[in-house]
């Protein structure tokens, strides 16, 4: 499968001795438009998105520095289209 692999995703140094492992993160998003069930609510939309669903800690290293990835992030929104 494209995009799926084992071993190093990238190397963290010029000699390719420091391996940044392959990481799989899961994101999920759901939206609801109540106007389909209730015509009086036409135009409204609610959305909930979660990034890094499992709250996996990711670290990427490069040239002697390591960076922590974003933990779980939850974003909700409500909007109305005129």
> What share of residues are in beta strands?
35-45%
Q: What is the makeup of the main sheet?
A: 3 strands, antiparallel
Mean pLDDT: 89
State the order of secondary-structure elements, H for helix, E for strand: EEEEEEE
Rg calculated over all Cα atoms: 20 Å
Please give the order of strands in the largest beta sheet. 3-4-7
What is the total number of structural domains? Answer: 1
Helix share bin: under 10%
Q: What assembly state would you assign to the polypeptide chains in this entry? A: single chain
Overall SS class: mainly beta
Organism: Salmonella enterica (Salmonella choleraesuis)
InterPro entries: Beta-barrel_TonB_sf
Keywords: Cell outer membrane, Membrane, Receptor
Subcellular location: Cell outer membrane
Q: How do the helices and strands line up, and which of them pair or pack?
A:
Layout: E1 8-11, E2 19-21, E3 28-32, E4 44-51, E5 59-62, E6 65-68, E7 73-80
Antiparallel strand pairs: 1-2, 3-4, 4-7, 5-6
Keywords: Cell outer membrane, Membrane, Receptor
Protein name: TonB-dependent receptor
InterPro entries: Beta-barrel_TonB_sf
């Amino acid at each position: 499968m494209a995009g799926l692999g084992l071993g190093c995703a990238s190397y963290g140094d010029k000699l390719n001795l420091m391996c940044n492992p392959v990481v799989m993160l899961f994101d999920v998003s759901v939206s609801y438009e109540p106007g389909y069930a209730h015509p009086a609510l036409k135009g409204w939309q609610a959305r909930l998105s979660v990034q890094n669903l499992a709250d996996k800690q990711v670290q990427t290293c490069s040239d002697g520095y390591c960076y922590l990835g974003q933990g779980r992030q939850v974003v909700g929104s409500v909007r109305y289209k005129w």
